[in-house]
Amino acid sequence: MPNKRIRVPRLRGADYTYRYFHQWFIVVFMVLAITVMCLASSSFRSAYNLGNLMNTCFPLILAALGQFLVILTAGIDLSVGSMLTLGNCLSVYIMTRIPTVPGLLLALAATVVCGLVCGAVNGLFIAKFRLPAIIVTIATAAVFQGTALVLLPDPGGSIVPALKTFLKWKAFGLIPVTFFLTVLAIVLILLLTNRTPLGRALRAVGGNESAAFGSGIKVARVKFTAYVLSALLAALAGLYLSARTSSGDPNIGSSYTIYSISATVVGGTMMTGAVGQAYGTACGAVIIFLINNILNMLDVSAFYQYAIQGAVLIFALMVGSLETRRERA
Amino acid sequence: MMTSKNWLGFVKTRFNQYAVYLFLVLILLLAQLYSPTYLQLTHMMGVLRLASFMGMAAIGQTIAILSGGIDLSIPYTISFSYILAAQYMAKTNANIPQAILACAILALLVGVVNGAGVCLLRIPAFIMTLGVGTVVRGAYMIWTKGTPKGYTAPLINDIANRSLGPVPYIVLVWLVLGTVAMIMLKCTPYGRKIYAVGSNARAARFSGINTRAILFSVYILSAVAACITGFFLIGYTGESYLDAGSSYDTAVIAAVIIGGTSIQGGKGSYLGSAAGSIIMVVFTDFLQIIRMSAGLRQVGQGVLILLLIMMYARESKVRL
Fold it and tell me: Which residue in B142, B257, B302 is closest to A146 by CB distance?
């Protein structure tokens, strides 16, 4: 039986420009910033630094894409950082004990399952029991972080070398494998949010939950899926961090919660839900680490990074809020 | 009012408000069963001393949550005022006014920025306060370069550690602040307005309440409470450490929720939060007595919040 699909009228002309201005602006801004930096600094434009930037951004892009899906439903996932830590600690816990390829596969499977289960816990409380997302994810963040501490009380452990080899591979000795993985992730999330019924449902729930419910969308199921995907992506980001640092660290994810929200907001996604694109979020993530990268190159002490990242978030929130105000007026 | 017929309904609707006292008795009995010296006066006073810091921080969080928001910058504000106070006191009583002034300026700054974001720009409270919290953390990192110096003044040290008879001075301070908070919330027009804004901001605005001014003041009060907590906390620890406030992030929110304050706003009381603070201290204490690792304690705290919101917050079930 053919699937009944609702045609969403496409935005044209000025409406289109207006709606997608922020997203395109952020892409152009990122490209410009990278170009200017490449022209200005020879150490920045080295293939090593650019590849390094890509590798640094990759886990945040994954985590932020998950956060993006949740924010599209007008929710919030404050457990992203802890989930990432748990993914990191769990995979290292397993790989330290079974340092072979089967151990790697087991770690991969365990991380995926752990992400799905933890996301399901979030989803269960938020979507099924209809409890406020903020407080549920604050509580589950404590649970995930605590579990990570139980698995790995101190930083350390080791990983299976095969994982490192795979993630260190570069196409033509130049483009890191994370680049392809990033493109894959962005394309998948873009297709999911813009071309599938689930994606449309995500936006509908974020735009007006009651209306979405009234028009027959299974609101609980849609929200549940968003939280599960968010936790899954965060867990995978944690696994990648294990490979990158060759060890586990129970504090590794602490800044990722705020970074993932920043990336999403900087990327033009509205905290009120429904509006936003995956590529904007990815660019937001790159911009966040670009700022850190520039600060490092300017020899600014790492202590400034907290303050500047917070300021970037507040600034992006201000811009977003002023934009919605114009729309409302 | 309650009639004898619908007492069950009364119990149901008021359960959230009064369950906390039941919990308090239960958890104390449980602790007493496990370690027979638990309910001794000296030990209880130690528990109260710890609870007073939690309780002072909970004043701000209670008001913020009652107004329908949340203040996630509290732990960072506590840390900063704690470091500020230590730095300015530098072991001398004569420097206390300067320390108070510094903390007051900090409270005003944090409160105004939070308030401006939440009421003028209408940014959701949790994300605004989270962002401001990050900036505050960055600010004290920059200021101390990662290694805070400074030491408490003897007077503040005495307040935090000495006792008047069996009662520590800090508990008296808490008693005064808590009473002021309770009177302000329950008996003044201002307090009633906070409840009104929290339960339905639009209705409150239409009935002539300046909701923006109320919200603005709520975040300033919350920052003030956090700064007072940090100010006295330095007396307790003596030397200053980085991120001293970080143990007050999830725990304070848990204390407020245990106390029966609805996370949706508009319902609850400070007395409940005060009892909730004591419960949180006893809970952590108890987990330490049975030698749970730090990780498991954190898991316990998270699970506790989840269970409680399951019990409490189901009132928000209606859709449409």
Answer: B302
Question: B172 in a domain, yes or no?
Answer: yes
Nearest chain B residue to A131 by CA: give it.
B313
B113: nearest CA in chain A? A314
Strand partners, B50: none
Contact criterion met (CB < 8 Å) for B132 and A146: no
- Nearest residue of B to residue A301, measured between CA atoms: B142
Give the total number of structural domains in chain A: 1
Q: Which two tokens stand for residue B292?
A: 């749970």
Positive or negative: CA dihedral A192, A193, A195, A201: positive
Degrees, nearest 5: CA angle A54-A56-A58: 65
Is residue A2 very low, low, confident or very high in pLDDT (cuts 50, 70, 90)? very low
- CA pair distance A113, A316, nearest whole angstrom: 34
CATH of the domain at A74: 1.10.3470
| Distance in angstroms between the alpha carbons of the first and the last residue of chain A | 44
* Interface contact B294, partner A, CB < 8 A: yes
Q: Determine the residue among A150, A306, A315, A317 to mutate to test chain B binding: the one whose Cβ has the most chain B Cβ atoms within 10 Å.
A: A306
Rounded CA gap, A181 and A169, in Å? 12
Q: A-chain residues within 8 Å CB-CB of B264?
A: 132
**pTM of structure:** 0.90
Q: Could you tell me if residue B27 is inside a domain?
A: no
In DSSP notation, B180-224 reads HHHHHHHHSHHHHHHHHHHH-HHHHHHTT--HHHHHHHHHHHHHH
d(CA B30, CA B145): 44
Reduced to 3 states (helix: H, G, I; strand: E, B; else coil), residue B292 is coil
Q: What is the pLDDT of residues B209-219, one digit of tens each?
A: 999 999 999 99
Amino acid in position A206 = G
Task: Compute the distance between CA of residue A49 and CA of residue A291 in angstroms, rounded to an integer.
Answer: 14
In-domain check, residue A26: no
Q: Judge whether B194 lies within some domain.
A: yes
Domain limits at B111?
38-312
Give the residues across from A156 on adjacent strands. Answer: A248
φ and ψ of A155, to 5 deg: -60, 145
- For residue B306, the chain A residues in CB contact (below 8 A) are 125, 136, 139-140, 143
| Rounded-to-integer distance, Cα A95 and Cα A283, Å | 32
The answer to whether the beta carbons of residues B236 and B53 sit under 8 Å apart is yes
Instruction: Judge whether B150 lies within some domain.
Output: yes
The pLDDT confidence band at residue B55, using thresholds 50, 70 and 90, is very high
CATH number at residue B205: 1.10.3470
Contacts of A76 in chain B (CB under 8 A): 126-127
Contact B313/A131, CB-based, under 8 Å? yes
Q: Do B131 and A143 touch (CB under 8 A)?
A: no
